[in-house]
Amino acid sequence: xxxxxxxxxxxxxxxxxxxxxxxxxxxxxxxxxxxxxxxxxxxxxxxxxxxxxxxxxxxxxxxxxxxxxxxxxxxxxxxxxxxxxxxxxxxxxxxxxxxxxxxxxxxxxxxxxxxxxxxxxxxxxxxxxxxxxxxxxxxxxxxxxxxxxxxxxxxxxxxxxxxxxxxxxxxxxxxxxxxxxxxxxxxxxxxxxxxxxxxxxxxxxxxxxxxxxxxxxxxxxxxxxxxxxxxxxxxxxxxxxxxxxxxxxxxxxx
Length: 254
Fold this sequence. Notes:
The protein is of the alpha/beta class and 254 residues long. The chain has helices spanning 13-18, 24-30, 36-43, 58-65, 77-86, 120-130, 149-159, 193-201, 204-207, 211-228; strands spanning 48-52, 69-73, 90-92, 106-112, 131-144, 181-191, 235-247. The protein has a single domain, classed as Rossmann fold, CATH 3.40.50. Helix content is 36%, strand content 23%.
């Protein structure tokens, strides 16, 4: 289990899930963070939060900025190294299926850009185990706003294949959690040409391409960007942030 904004219609999901360590630097540079209202919705007044599948620490950083006690768990050694190089938090290797945390030890669990990689049959009971009664599981995805013309043109090249909606995997949570509460917000990620290319290069589909095909795809994306943003150093990439929050019943609810 690890982060990616997209699945690529490829049946070899495990290979894609394992691929991110090879592009940890590009991931850390290019991937956007998360807007404040999304973070508010996902963690509320939680004091201790597990960032599960923490990747390079994009969501972790938002929690640290709020003074929240954070533990980051991530299966990729390289991604975890990027996280601990920039953030002073408790962090260790682990997965949604085996977090390594004690029972009832956190107020909230957040999984950012990663729930589609987990095995829900094992991950849901594990998350319920580490949560305190009344705690929450929050799932969040940043999704590019492809209703914007230039974004649609670039990612028509960058994804080259069918892409299914990651948010649908939130439906796989179920008992013992209650029904999901949904929140969506918009933001713009301030980046540049190199940042867009890094963003494309950090996608699982692109990471696993043969080198020549990868170079050709990135060159084509570069040509599109040059046509849409000639001479511009700053690009605002529009995103939608989709959040779903599930609550574990408190003892009194059992």
